[in-house]
Amino acid sequence: MAAIGKYSSIYRTSPEFDFPEPSSGKLGLIKLPACNYGGKSGTEVKTSFIAPLRAIEASRTSQVNTKAENFQRSGCDSHDDLPTNDCNGFSGKSRPQTSTTGNSTNIVWHKCSVEKCDREELLQQRGCVIWVTGLSGSGKSSLACALSRGLHSRGKLTYILDGDNLRHGLNRDLSFRAEDRAENIRRTGEVAKLFADSGVICIASLISPYRKERDACRAFLAEGDFIEVFMDVPLHVCEARDPKGLYKLARAGKIKGFTGIDDPYEPPLTSEIVLRQNQGLCDSPSDLADTVISYLDKKGRFTLDSSKYCTPRLVQEWYARIDTINSSQENQSFLKIFTYLTNTLFIYGSLGSFSQLATKL
């Protein structure tokens, strides 16, 4: 096995096709079975192009090939190799600027060299937040579960943040007063943002009655990463369902501040998806989930933008270098050999990119 780009596991059909090891002083020598490439036959073909390829790989060490190696260096002194502040705290060579956020003082945002695009590339999906809002009894939790099942069957990683479930733990110190409801939504939005940043499709399902707080959660994320789903079910329908018996208690005055009864619900004005009853009939949760999945698919949430990821960027750099090669017989012979070798490589998650490279060669 050897490493190319960010991948450490590369499988070859035979050890005869190994590139020279980086520590070897024998640059420009590849051993191949007896063949004839560009008029040269035998078991060894010499080229001057290996060194430029090595130089490309060396220049990518900090960003693509072996980011983790930087952490193993004594004192993490090689700051120039890291585009972020991964090791600044160890060497003491630089002191980051502190800031104040809310009641938190003297804090520093610590950026890591593994970013959202790296996690999305690993998961092969785009992280986002699907925010399901509506009255109690409108079917939010049922939709969330059906949506999670549907996405799971497509090989997508999801997690549900259910309003009641969160109040069993993270938000158990909050009441249903207006200020506590606002804090409930803020906390949920912050957690949902973290899930999206990890590359997970987060499904937040809670009444979230106030438009201002929902819009604030939208502002946490990049444009397009917050998808609001409004369960537009009339109050009388929700009250007739009353799956938890809460509307009955609210009407009897035993529950105060119940949304839709004595506390307002502010319907969204610009939701990405609105799910309504169809002529008085309710679609099944699976059908509603299919509607959301179709929207996600149409918006390209299940495909990755290759320009954001390391491997395609590396291949593009190789394209540029290959375009500069002169047309000497020696280099032309190597290009044919490199095409042959490329076709024997299997690189997890990057086979398509190297196939494009082979095609260009």
UniProtKB/TrEMBL annotation:
EC annotation from Swiss-Prot or TrEMBL:
2.7.1.25
CDD domains reported for this sequence: APSK (cd02027)
Which residue intervals define the domain APS kinase in the entry? 126-275
**Which GO annotations describe the biological process of this protein?**
sulfate assimilation
For the keyword Nucleotide-binding, the answer is yes
* Keyword Metal-binding recorded: no
Gene3D superfamilies in alphabetical order: P-loop containing nucleotide triphosphate hydrolases
Example GO molecular function term?
A: ATP binding
Name its pathway: Sulfur metabolism; hydrogen sulfide biosynthesis; sulfite from sulfate: step 2/3
Q: Which keywords annotate this record?
A: ATP-binding, Kinase, Nucleotide-binding, Transferase
Catalytic activity of the protein: adenosine 5'-phosphosulfate + ATP = 3'-phosphoadenylyl sulfate + ADP + H(+)
Q: Kindly give the Pfam families that the UniProt entry links to this protein.
A: APS_kinase
Q: Give the signal sequence positions.
A: none
In terms of superkingdom, the source organism counts as Eukaryota
Biological role stated in the UniProt entry: Catalyzes the synthesis of activated sulfate.
Read off the HAMAP family from this record.
Answer: Adenylyl_sulf_kinase (MF_00065)
Family membership noted in the UniProt record: Belongs to the APS kinase family.
Protein name stated in the entry: Adenylyl-sulfate kinase
